[in-house]
Amino acid sequence: MAKNKPGSGQVRIIGGQWRSRKLPIHDLEGLRPTTDRVRETLFNWLMNDISGARVLDCFAGSGALSLEALSRYANFAQIFELQASAAKQLQTNLQTLKCPNAKVSQGNSLQLLDHACAEGFDIIFIDPPFRKGLANECISLLVKHHWLNDNALIYVETESELTDLTTPSSWQEVKHKQAGQVSYRLFRYQQDVNL
Questions:
Q1: Percent of the chain, pLDDT > 70?
Q2: Are strands 8-12 and 22-26 parallel, antiparallel or unpaired?
């Protein structure tokens, strides 16, 4: 881990303008940063779509996914994080990177998503704490309140034993992999023209 005080660690950005930068994170209960290997695969999948994108990170934790997206020239990131200390650390890390095009909102992601969205997003990260049933609720709210732009890409990371992930018919699965205890998928949202 890191040379930080006990009970803390680091997240490493693997590509883009901040490649190899290491940033401090708090070692909090349930915090499970997406591994470098999974992140590398994910951002290979997103390679042609990330630059200029509006990104929504629904359960940010360490911020590994949104920071990686911003490093690769995403236009803006809205970052939701429940735990106050993790949200504060994310804000500090963004200041360290001199990154003004991100907003951290501290609070319950499901409550933050449960209202109309003024401007939609192109890439959405759903990587909730495992075994709490949060992924399906999050997906439902994203659809209900129109958080997704047409052709948006949605990344969903869950525990591998989760078998009842419910996605709307407008979401087409484009990639699906498993790494140990983690199952991760990429969907593309296409508006139903008949609606």
A1: 90
A2: antiparallel
Q: How far apart are CA 34 and CA 61, in angstroms?
A: 10
Q: Provide the pLDDT for residue 162.
A: 85
Token couple for 21: 């930068």
- The residue behind tokens 């994203």 is 142
Name the token pair of 187.
């969907």
Between residues 113 and 118, the one the model is more confident about: 113
Give all strands (DSSP E) within the chain, no chain letters: 8-12, 22-26, 54-57, 76-81, 102-106, 121-126, 148-159, 171-179, 182-189
Paired tokens of 85? 């200390």
Residue of 146, 142, 150 whose CA lies nearest to 49: 150
Q: Which two tokens stand for residue 159?
A: 């525990």
Q: Domain limits of the chain?
A: 8-189
Q: How many CA atoms lie within 13 A of 131 on its CB side?
A: 5
For residues 181 and 179, what is the distance between their CA atoms, to the nearest angstrom?
6
CA–CA distance, 156 with 127 (Å, rounded to integer)? 6
Q: Was domain 8-189 assigned CATH 3.60.140.10? A: no
